[in-house]
Amino acid sequence: MRGYYGIELSSSACVRFVRNGDMDGSEQEVFEDVRKRGIRYAYVDLSSPRVQGEILANQIGGVLTLEHAPYTHNHWVCFLDDLITLAHREQGLVIVVDSAWLLLEGRRGELFDLIEAFLVQFHHWLEQRKPCYLCLQMEPNRKLTSLFAPSG
Predict the structure, then answer these.
(1) Are 46 and 34 in contact (CB under 8 A)?
(2) Cβ distance 138 to 19 under 8 Å?
(3) Cα separation of 89 and 149, whole Å?
(4) How far is CA 28 from CA 13, 80, 112, 127, in A?
């Protein structure tokens, strides 16, 4: 419905399920604005063979270089604790999980744990009026992937 529009702003609409039809072509400008504002972001593509089989909390924690990642036990508790720490250090946070449909297909438990952990810590960002979003890109989109490519 909203795609990535407004993710540089604080809002309680913090979890987004994004489909290709929700994207309007402004994504490059949106993520440039995210970068300019100093908002921390992570992009994880679940279709990448490099991350398949890895615990999702560790995938995201590794990209964000979170304090306690990689997690060896209590993954989601440690992950949300690290996100709370970030809330007091960073200007904002955007997590993009690409090919998130794979979570529904075979890793539902991880999807629900991710959403729950994210929501448990979210109020720390909202109280400080800092943007904090979990964007689940449901369908693969090459334009989005190119925004986060190492050469881009």
Answers:
(1) no
(2) yes
(3) 26
(4) 21, 28, 29, 28
pLDDT in single tens digits along all 152 residues of the chain = 578 999 999 999 999 999 998 888 889 999 999 999 999 999 999 988 776 778 999 999 999 999 999 999 999 999 999 999 999 999 999 999 999 999 888 889 999 999 999 999 999 999 999 999 999 999 988 888 888 866 43
User: Please, what is the Cα angle at 48 between 131 and 28, to 5 degrees?
Assistant: 40
Strands 40-45 and 93-98: parallel
Q: How far apart (Å, rounded) are the C-alpha atoms in residues 122 and 83?
A: 9
120-130 per-residue burial string, b: 16 or more CB within 10 A, e: under 16? ebbebbeeeeb
pTM, two decimal places? 0.93
Query: 3-state DSSP call for residue 50?
Result: coil
Using alpha carbons, select from 148, 137, 147, 114 the residue that is nearest to residue 23.
137
Q: Which two tokens stand for residue 89?
A: 């250090």
Measure the CA–CA gap between 91 and 33, rounded to whole angstroms: 13
- Give 14's DSSP letter: -
